[in-house]
Design brief:
alpha+beta; Arc Repressor Mutant, subunit A; Dna Ligase, domain 1; 2 domains; three-stranded mixed beta sheet; two-stranded antiparallel ribbon; 5 helices; 5 strands
Length: 138
């Protein structure tokens, strides 16, 4: 039995923003981008749309740090993220030997692995440059 997803006008608009984004916008940033396009939806509508789209597997939620705002990713294939610990910028990279690491985890723990993510943290190129410029006067 196949499930038919009901993409309302609001859900489609939110999905379009996330899929077309070159970054990983937060719900607030998605709201701003919708408004820039002349589309005005209530915050609740945007949050509910994001929850629906995430549950349906059409977008991915990316958590940044402890309790930080969730970011949304239109790329749903298996990949990993790297997050700038200074400005919270997020980038993506492919995870080589992912299957090997999953099998290793299963063998060590006897868990049934249902999902796997790998997140790195560091300084993005912009913050690295800012940090090196700040040290010139020392």
């Amino acid at each position: 039995m196949s499930t038919v997803l009901r993409l309302t006008k609001q859900r489609r608009a939110v999905l379009d923003i996330v899929v077309s984004a070159s970054d990983h916008p937060t719900a607030a940033e998605i709201m701003e981008r919708l408004q820039d396009r002349g589309q005005r939806f209530a915050y609740g509508t945007v949050y509910n749309s994001l929850k629906f789209l995430t549950t349906a597997g059409l977008v991915r939620e990316v958590q940044v740090g402890d309790g930080g705002a969730a970011h949304y990713d239109g790329r749903t294939d298996e990949h990993s993220h790297i997050i700038c610990s200074r400005c919270q910028a997020i980038d993506e990279f492919d995870w080589p030997q992912r299957d090997v690491m999953i099998e290793y985890a299963k063998a060590q723990t006897r868990f049934e692995v249902r999902d796997a993510s790998l997140v790195f943290e560091g300084l993005c190129p912009t913050c690295q440059a800012d940090a090196s410029h700040g040290q010139e006067g020392m």
